[in-house]
Amino acid sequence: MFKGIAMGVSDLIPGVSGGTIALVLGIYQSLIAAINGLFSKEWKQHLAFLVPLGLGIIVTLLTLSHLVEFLLAEYPQPTFFFFLGLIIGIIPTLLKDIDYKRSFTPIHYGLLAIGAIIVGASYFVKDNELSAVMTHLVWSDYVLLFFGGWLASTAMILPGVSGSFIFLLLGLYPTVINALSTFNIPVIIAVGSGIAIGLVLTSRLITYLFTQYKTGTYALMIGFIVGSIIVIYPGISGNQFLLYTSIYAFLMGGISAYLLSYFETKKTVVKLSNS
């Protein structure tokens, strides 16, 4: 449930991917398998994994949206620098997990570069001016919110690609955040149903890619994460307080990534020794 809370916070912030945080927390492939497994004979086992994780995400989205709005409005630089440290800190672990020195060929380095370019290029199309909150919605607006949720869920589950950033590009981010803050049920249902369908379909594709092209898929995803560094980087203000706070937040993010990776590795070793 605490891992769900961490994923929920990341999903609220444009540029930060819930899929990346799932990788940091060591649950990414378990998450993909559980979503796929909902339609199998072992659905109860997978549901037992997804329910507490989902509760953590939902509780965060409904309760911390005000806090995230405040942090992004008042202290965007330190907030983004924390996630920047978290994301940079996980890259060495991902490279180690796939044993890149042995498994990577020039093609895989090429895929990594392509992934970084694809996500990094989105920096040049982002709009710093937020759209107005949509009011007096008609059926076509709900259709847009549904498909926006569908597209965003595809991004949410891919490391390095932010679902919130997709909402931002579509001009839906303020409306979605406002709906979470004010418990606007119709908007939440429209977006949530799109997200649910998108997660199921995308998880099947990712499972196929991991099964058939594991190293290539890892390389592309690491590229996505590298590219997201460009998107998340907020620039540096001349304000000395903000500068020192941002450096501290960046270090805390990096340390958090290291500790999470360390404890996940220790837990895996314990499980293997017990078995």
UniProtKB/TrEMBL annotation:
Pfam families documented for this protein: VCA0040-like
Keywords attached to this entry: Membrane, Transmembrane, Transmembrane helix
Transmembrane segments: 12-35, 47-67, 79-95, 107-125, 187-206, 218-236, 242-263
Highest taxon, organism lineage: Bacteria
The keyword Amino-acid biosynthesis is annotated on this UniProt entry: no
InterPro entries: VCA0040-like (IPR007163)
UniProt protein name: DUF368 domain-containing protein
Gene source species: Alkalihalophilus sp. As8PL
